[in-house]
Write a structure and sequence with these properties.
Blueprint: E1 2-4, H1 10-24, H2 30-43, E2 48-54, E3 57-65, E4 68-74, H3 83-92, E5 97-103, H4 107-115, E6 119-125, E7 132-139, E8 150-154, E9 164-169, H5 178-187, H6 189-196, E10 207-210, E11 218-223, H7 234-251, E12 256-259, H8 271-288, E13 293-298, H9 301-313
Parallel strand pairs: 4-5, 8-13, 9-11, 9-12, 12-13
Antiparallel strand pairs: 1-2, 2-3, 3-4, 5-7, 6-7, 10-11
Helix pairs in contact: 1-2, 7-8, 8-9
The chain binds ligand AR6.
Ligand AR6 binds next to strand 9 and helix 5.
Length: 320
């Protein structure tokens, strides 16, 4: 039986998580997994977790963040009984496409995902462990053109291991509140020093800097439009922020890009409208650049729900 996670499952899931990781990744020091356990314990209740249970015993589980598989774990005594395949099938029925990261050295997992219809899409080094990893994707029959490389997650953009993260800045590029403030705090004072040399940026346009103390290599700064009622070219300016960010990322060889929800905070752009514009612009770009991938990092559940709705509606005829 496959069911959703309950609060009481937490401790058992952590135990399975730890032993499965230690067993599958002998090339990573055990201290790394032991040191990550507390973060996993805290993250589990927020994640979408499905559990495989047999006669009241948990045999394995899969943790999702949007369409991204955060992890698929099977208890060591329950291997080769189709538990992993059943969990994967469960999420395949519920998502138009799936994406995940897997260590190159974990050959067994890479083979398992390949047999399950996943394809290797990109390759890179995971910052935390220094290990090479593949990003793999599975595309379901309901997957529309362009959404393949697009993932919506909840999280904090300053912790994203993307080649480039995008900053919802203002035209001075000298920092501010919201996501801008968070990025400057996490990157350190060197970021502001470089920003001072850029002499600002126009709304809907972009400038690039290094990422300094961030896990991301680059920060692409774009001032989104301030909402003024909708007749001041806000839609085009917002689309411009997304499109120009992606073009500049591509020019700099950045294959993975993470965005916050531009303009929907202090700049008060209506969330649903912004999510629709972002989705159309990002997916339109990804159709032409299948080697790139984009993660929309939503800071709260309301924002995530709006981007998920926009993605579900993407490509459908507009409502009358
Ligand atoms: N990670 C991801 N998203 C975040 C984070 C974070 N760490 N922090 C906030 N958000 P806003 P804007 C979300 O106001 O509307 C600044 O002062 C937030 O919840 O940061 O484009 C600039 O300097 C919201 O969903 O950006 C400008 O003056 C989204 O990011 C002005 O604000 C955007 O909210 C730009 O306003």
């Amino acid at each position: 039986m496959i069911r959703k996670m309950k609060e009481a499952d937490g401790a058992e899931l952590c135990a399975i998580w730890l032993s499965a990781n230690l067993e599958a990744h002998s090339f990573i020091p055990a201290e790394y997994w032991l040191g990550s356990l507390e973060a996993v314990r805290r993250a589990l209740p927020q994640a979408e977790v499905f559990i495989y249970e047999n006669s009241g015993h948990i045999e394995g589980f899969i943790g999702m963040n949007g369409s991204c598989i955060e992890g698929l774990f099977v208890r060591s005594g329950a291997r080769s009984r189709g538990v992993g395949a059943a969990l994967l099938e469960h999420v395949r029925q519920r998502k138009p496409y799936l994406t995940l990261y897997v260590y190159q050295k974990n050959r067994r997992a890479v083979r398992f995902y390949e047999r399950s219809g996943f394809e290797k899409r990109s390759f890179g080094k995971e910052e935390a462990t220094g290990e090479e990893e593949y990003r793999m994707e599975w595309r379901g029959p309901a997957c529309k053109e362009g959404i393949m490389g697009y993932t919506i997650i909840s999280g904090d953009i300053t912790t994203q291991h993307a080649d480039a993260i995008v900053n919802a800045a203002n035209t001075s590029l000298l920092g501010g509140g919201g996501v801008d403030g968070a990025i400057h705090r996490a990157a350190g004072p060197e970021l502001l020093r470089e920003c001072r040399t850029l002499h600002g940026c126009r709304t809907g346009e972009v400038k690039i800097t290094k990422g300094y103390r961030l896990p991301a290599r680059y920060v692409i700064h774009t001032p989104g439009p301030v909402w003024r009622g909708g007749n001041a070219g806000e839609d085009e300016l917002l689309a411009g922020s997304y499109r120009s960010s992606l073009r500049l990322a591509a020019e700099n060889g950045a294959k993975t890009v993470a965005f916050p929800s531009i303009s929907t905070g202090v700049y008060r752009f209506p969330l649903e409208r912004a999510a629709r514009i972002a989705t159309e612009t990002v997916c339109g770009f990804l159709r032409e650049h299948p080697d790139m991938s984009v993660t929309m990092v939503c800071f709260d559940e309301r924002t995530k729900a709006a981007y998920e709705k926009a993605l579900a509606e993407y490509g459908s005829p507009p409502k009358k």
